[in-house]
Structure formats: C-alpha cells, structure tokens
Design brief:
512 residues; alpha/beta; single chain; 6-stranded mixed β-sheet; 11% strand; 6-stranded parallel β-sheet
C-alpha cells in the first residue's frame, strides 16, 4: 500500500477517503495527486477525461503511481451512457436492448467484455448497472438505461450484468436505490417523488436490488428521490431509514454504498453539497460521488472540511465516518486482488451481435414481412428528430443511423430537427415540413427517440408520413408508440452498434 502523507491526521484522511471526485483534463492535475497522497482513495472519470484507450491507461497509471490502491470509477453503462466512447457512440448496446433480447447469458457476456475493456485501461469500479424498473413510460432520465418495465426481467438481467462485470475484475455499482423508474422528473434538475405503497416498492422496485445483492454486487448507488412510504422527510441518499434500515438491515447488504452525484439539483438545490454530504454519510452512505459538474480542488476541500467539522461538532459520529472509509478501503482491496481478466475470445463483436438480436422490425400492411422489404440501394435522406439530451447521456455523444448509412450508402444526406419554439403541434409540423423540403426526392429515413414522450416529434412524423408514406422510421428510444412507416425498426437504444444493426436492415447488408 502507498504510504500516506504523515502530516494528515486520521479524521482528515477518513474524510478524504470517502470522496469520489472528478477533475478536468486527460492527465491528473497536481492537486489531485496531492490529495491522493493525503488520503483520497477514489477518483471518478468522465468523458472529458478520455481521449483513447492508450491515454486512459496512461492516466490510470499516473494515478496509481501516487497511490497504488486507488479506486478508479467511471459511468460506463454501455448503450446511450458511455464514457469510453463518448465521441463515437458505444460498441455495446445498453440495458433496454439486452432486456429486449432477454438472454441472460448474452447480458453476462456483454457485461464481461465491457468490464474487460475497463480493466485493461485500469478502471476498477463501474457505476453500473441501472437496476431501475422503468414503470413510468414518461421517465426522462432512465428509459433505455433500464432493462425494462417488467420486474422479474429487470432482476434476472441485473444479476447477470453484475456477475459478468465482476468476473472481469471490475466492481459493479448497482443503481439507483431504491429505484428511479417510477418518476417523470429527472433528479439532475429537481427532486423526484415516488408515491407508491411500501408493498409495491418491495415487490417491484426492490426486486432487482435483491437480485444484485444475491449476485454479490460490490457497490450500490443511492437515488436522489423522495419516497414517502419509506421516509416522508428526506430523499433516499440522505435517509437513514432507507440506506441503513432498508438496504443494510432488511436486505442484508454489507458492501459499499455510493451516492449519486451530489452536485445534481435534487441535492445541491435543496440541501447544498456540503450539508448533503454530511447527511449522506450519517445516513449510511460510504462514498460521496461529486465531479460531474464540480471538478476542482476547492470542492474536495469544502467537502473534506464539512465532514471534519461535522464530526467535531458532534453532528456526525466519528465511528460512522471511519466505518465508511473502511468500506472504501475494503473495496480497493477486492479490486487489487481481482487481477487482470483473461483475453477475450469474443472481442467487441459481442456488442454488435447483441444489437442485431435486439431489433424489432415491423413492415407496413401490404409490404409483407420484413424479410420481403426491398432494401435501399440509393442514398436516402436521414431526418433525425432530436430531443433535448438527457444529462446522464450528454449531448456530445453521437446517435442515430446517419453515420452508418453514410458508410454503407455513400452520398446519404442528413439533417437534425428539434421542437424549436411555439406550441408542440406547430413545432412538430414545422419540423416535418422542413425535413420534407430538405429531403427533396430522396427516400426518407426518420429517426426518433422516445416518440411517445414528445408530442412535437409525433406531429413531425404525422407530417412526414402524410406526404411520404414510404418513409422508414427508426425508433432509438423506448418503443412505446405504435409502429408506423413503411418499415419501423425499434433498436431499443441509441448506441453506435444499434445504429449499425438498423442500417444493415435498411440496406440489406448481411451481418459481418
């Protein structure tokens, strides 16, 4: 183990140990290396920190040169939420696609290969999988990040994902406890509230977490949600009833509890990150995730000092902070003992294989089965009906089928259309008319994402299909709306491989 700076007292070291901060840049800044020497035990990586696998490996080597047992965490769900491939789109489909296939062995294989890639770059803690049951189709933040709306399906695939990821030596962090699926509010922006009974929660939301615990998940991430049936006063991240009473005592979980990002408005906008961090540790959390938006030394020092001050003021028991720090170190020991995974025999081809299996293809009446659909041989016009980006996904990650169609049918032209200003229907009609004008005589491929959640998007499709019934529709979100178009392809996610699989169907290109 790395020897910590002798001038740092035990209380201060423990306060640093429970933090999981981020930073900016593709190399570790001096302040971060200095804090690792003083007791900081975890670092969170985001898309801004990653340029290539080689660069990422060099970065994690740099961190371990300062502290050899550091936990290097990342939010790499695959599918729509990727940090490894933030600028190109993921080589692996996300949870909803895997749930659509419903082959637990395939889910295990995909998670293992994703974990192997992370481990090869020096990452040993993944803030995944999402175990949320997407029971509210209006959910703006979970959606395709969930395995689905069926509880048992979500439970068995959560367990398969956990075992697959951890078989590659990367700790899984199952999220968002006690379940973020039954809400139409994004906790990045506000505090969601879930008003269902404790019995419904036990049967629906908690089942995937029980499965993850039984599968040995090394970490669980809390949700910034208010669940009055469990605690009417405090959100789960800050609730002793939920983190200690329910997760620890009732469900018997003894691994690391990590908070969701404390800079999210559900906490930062109500309690503030310093007070929120103190309350989270007191409630039973062991690690404070911060750094998606706040990534500097000043933030780390503010949180460190807030925890130390709370202990000295008698607001936070010193034993609770020490217990939390011990759990962080215990996970670091597990990660250090896990070793390097064996070389894969499947490579990332397993991701494309899974994406192909996840497709649901529906031909319009009169066109016969999808197998009789006449593939495109001339370059089309791709109209991407683009919603506001989910913060968890980020607007820097490309999505759609345009890039893959350009590759398969050179000369393909593309345009992006959004709601704009004004009433939803008018905005949609305007977008539809604009797409028709831009397309000219070309065949149109309309790409949507959660059509059912966006009235303007549905109106735009109405306009397109009224004028051009031969339009092909590709739904890359949750396929809740009825299939329509000459050909409708539901990919169950917007990963790059999902776009590739859809483009193969559109062009009739055989699988590679």
């Amino acid at each position: 183990m790395t020897t910590l700076a002798s001038g740092t007292d035990t209380l201060t070291r423990d306060a640093l140990t429970v933090l999981q901060p981020g930073f900016t840049g593709t190399t570790a800044p001096d302040w971060l290396l200095r804090r690792l020497g003083e007791g900081l035990a975890s670092v969170g990586l985001f898309g801004r920190n990653i340029a290539s696998p080689g660069q990422l490996s060099a970065l994690t080597d740099q961190l371990r040169a300062e502290r050899d047992d550091v936990l290097v965490a990342i939010d790499e769900e695959g599918g729509d939420v990727t940090r490894l491939e933030v600028r190109s789109g993921s080589s692996f489909p996300g949870n909803h696609a895997l749930g659509a296939v419903d082959d637990v062995e395939l889910t295990h294989q995909v998670a293992h290969e994703l974990g192997r890639r992370l481990a090869s770059c020096g990452v040993n803690l993944n803030w995944a999988p999402s175990a949320d049951v997407n029971s509210d189709p209006r959910n703006p933040v979970i959606g395709v990040r969930s395995f689905g709306a069926d509880t048992e399906l979500a439970a068995r695939h959560t367990a398969a994902y956990v075992t697959g990821l951890q078989s590659a030596g990367v700790a899984a962090c199952t999220k968002h406890f006690p379940g973020h699926g039954d809400t139409a509010v994004d906790s990045h922006h506000a505090l969601p509230r879930i008003d269902v009974s404790a019995d419904v929660l036990a049967e629906r939301e908690l089942a995937p977490f029980r499965a993850a615990i039984a599968a040995g998940t090394r970490a669980v991430m809390s949700a910034h949600i208010l669940v009055p049936a469990l605690d009417p006063d405090r959100p789960a991240t800050l609730s002793r009833r939920i983190l200690t009473g329910l997760l620890r005592d009732e469900l018997g979980y003894d691994g690391l509890i990590v908070t969701d990002g404390m800079e999210m408005r559900a906490i930062a906008g109500t309690y503030g990150i310093e007070r929120g961090s103190v309350l989270a540790i007191a409630a039973g959390a062991d690690a404070i995730c911060v750094g998606g938006g706040l990534a500097d030394d000043a933030t780390v020092l503010r949180l460190r000092d807030a925890l130390v001050a709370a202990v000295r003021a008698g607001e936070l028991p010193e034993e609770r902070l020490a217990e939390a720090a011990d759990r962080v170190r215990a996970l670091a020991r597990w990660a250090g003992a896990a070793g390097s995974p064996a070389e894969s025999t499947q490579g990332t081809e397993i991701g494309l294989h899974a994406a192909r299996r996840a497709l649901t293809v529906t031909a319009a009446p009169g066109l016969g089965s999808p197998g009789t659909f006449e593939p495109l041989t001339e370059p089309p016009y791709v109209a991407a009906l683009t919603p506001v980006a989910n913060i968890a996904v980020g607007d820097e990650t490309p999505w759609g089928v345009a890039a893959e169609l350009i590759h398969l049918l050179p000369g393909t032209v593309t345009g992006s259309f959004s709601a704009g200003d004004g009433p939803e229907n008018e905005a949609g009609e305007n977008a539809g008319r604009a797409a028709l004008q831009a397309a000219g005589p070309r065949r149109i491929v309309a790409v949507v994402r959660d059509e059912h959640r966006h009235p303007w998007m549905a109106s735009a499709l109405d306009a397109l299909l009224a004028a051009r019934p031969d339009t092909i529709v590709v739904e890359m979100g949750v396929p809740q709306a009825a299939p329509r178009g000459a050909l409708h392809i539901a990919t169950h996610g917007a990963a790059r491989v999902c776009g590739r699989a859809a483009a193969e169907v559109i062009t009739g290109v055989p699988g590679l």
